[in-house]
Amino acid sequence: MPELSHDFEHAAVKALGNQQLRTNFRRVMTGLMNKRAAQFPDPDELQALRSRGKSIKDRALAKLPDLLVQLEQNLIANGIQVHWAESVDEGNRIILDILRKANAKSLIKGKSMVSEEMHFNHFLEENNIRALESDLGEYIIQLAGEGPSHIVMPAIHKNKGEIGKLFQEKIDGQGYTDDPDELTAAARRVLRQMFANADAGFSGVNFAAADTGSLVLMSNEGNGRMSTHLPSMHIALMGIEKVIERLEDVGPLISLACRSATGQPITTYVNVISGPRKAGEKDGPKEVHLVILDNGRTRIYDDPQLREGLRCIRCAACMNHCPVYTRIGGHAYQYTYPGPIGEILNPQMQGIEKAGDVLHASSLCGRCAEVCPVKIPLVDLIVRLRRESIRPSADAVKGGGSRKSGMENVIWFGWKTMYANPLFYRWGTWWLRKIGNLMPAGLPLLKQWTSVRSKPQFASRSIYDLARERGIRDE
Amino acid sequence: MSNARSAILERLRKAPKKPVPDLAPWSPYKTTTEQPLDRFRRLMGAVKGEIIDTKRADLAETLRKVLADKQAKNLLYAPNTEIGRTIDAAWATEPGPQLVAYDKPMEELKSLMINDIDAGITSTMGAIADTGSLIVWPSAEEPRLMSLVPPIHIAVLEASKMYDSFSEAVGKLGWNKKPPGNTLLISGPSKTADIEGILCFGVHGPKQLVIILITD
Lengths: 475, 216
Ligand code: SF4
Fold this sequence. Notes:
In chain A, strand 5 and strand 6 form a beta hairpin. Chain A has 23 helices and ten strands.
């Protein structure tokens, strides 16, 4: 994967100038929003389902340590081996060890955002193990050497012509076509052989049911099943927040996730894995491993408000509906998770000093929180993290306070003083009326604002004076 | 046990406690005006699952027709199941497309399965009206790959085994007791919309899903 430059502003400006990219995103996001809306014709049903989803995840989070232990016990009883990793490095190393022990040289992957968090493919390649993505979108971006631009549709920034050229260039014997059916068939051909020959399969996890010791995976393509049924070993990876109490609770969560994500009642496959191949069975992996990753999640958990972000079921509705995301696409966000959920997760996982600039990729319009199927108050969390970036509360967030700026402090102090005191206010606005229009737009601080907006015109008389004149009193 | 495990659990245990909320009131989907089977047909149709009604006694004949229709030259089947025995008996009197028995470990059949099989037939545990999904529980007799690798998946569903919702199926089938190693919901043929959001079928799993519905 190419080294990314971690500068949100430049990336966003560049994305805004790319008309093709904006057209691709606009079209698909509009489609997804319409499909979601069509899935929820009854607002009461939607609200009841969202409340249920929220309460399922809140219960699981309230009991998280106990549920993780219960899950582990039941998985082990089912014959699944469980590993724990605190950091990305530890997670990578555990999986490498498992693969080395089995003498595995190649791995076929189902979709996993957590593995993107770990830069897992890159790590394996450095260690001479070939990791091939099998989700069509992930396969496309892997061929292109790019990262995902959306958590459900990773290659959605590319159009079919671009994909046609990519396939022609990278797949042996493949001519150019921009027909999606033919492109899909080409990927099927290549990947089928990989599924058959790979030494190990890999997947993420959508939900892990503690009561039965089951891993639940959703997929439309069937690659999730191929990766977990065909190779002789299956390694699954999940964040600690994926565990829920009961298999039964998967029903409402799937309904919320699928309807919110792509406007389907359900994905084509819901694959419930509760153990490896047993004696007498003819297929299925002989070994199943689960790696449970922390990577900053316990720190998020430690703060009662920020913990709400751990309810996320990765449906992507928040980004599909985000006016900022729809215009700049996912790559501008620089780190694994784009859109509103990324604005919350990336700064907390990477540290505000590194990834805090995405906190400003929001107009706080509130659409994300309105559509979030598990009622995460995304806007409140973004505002909270903005505050943490300036004035940290204890040790809540990595890199808290690192965005403090003397100049910004002075400006806010001045603003506050003026608005808190009628005398200052009148005096301040009087001056602005007199000299505001004379100030050149290119003044040092003003320039940053006026470079992309026209400078406001100051009225010669204040609304306060006008109101007075009409006989409106202060009270 | 590893350090990571105890460190993670310890941090979680030390974190501020929040009360465990009750589950918010919500009831799983229940059919009211539309019959469960009608809803199932509608939703399955919307995702290109084909449904063919038949009587139990006509299963083999219906299967023959489906295979002819789809021009399948062979069929992967499970010989030690009721469906398998029905097929064997019917093919003994009048041979049809070549039968391939899934009666040995996958390793011995893999290349054949990946490259040469046209269709596979499996039973189902029933279906869910809410989402239009088949419930499939692979077993030693009827292994996992039968419903996945062949380009055509033929699934036999008994109309009497309809459940309103996943929650109902979990309770009635004892899914949450000690489930088999792999259990599935299947709602249509394999599909993707990863290229420009345009729907394409058969990306990795079956391109076609044919449901033979036993109505008696
Ligand atoms: S924050 Fe909510 S809307 Fe966004 S991906 Fe997570 S669950 Fe979906």
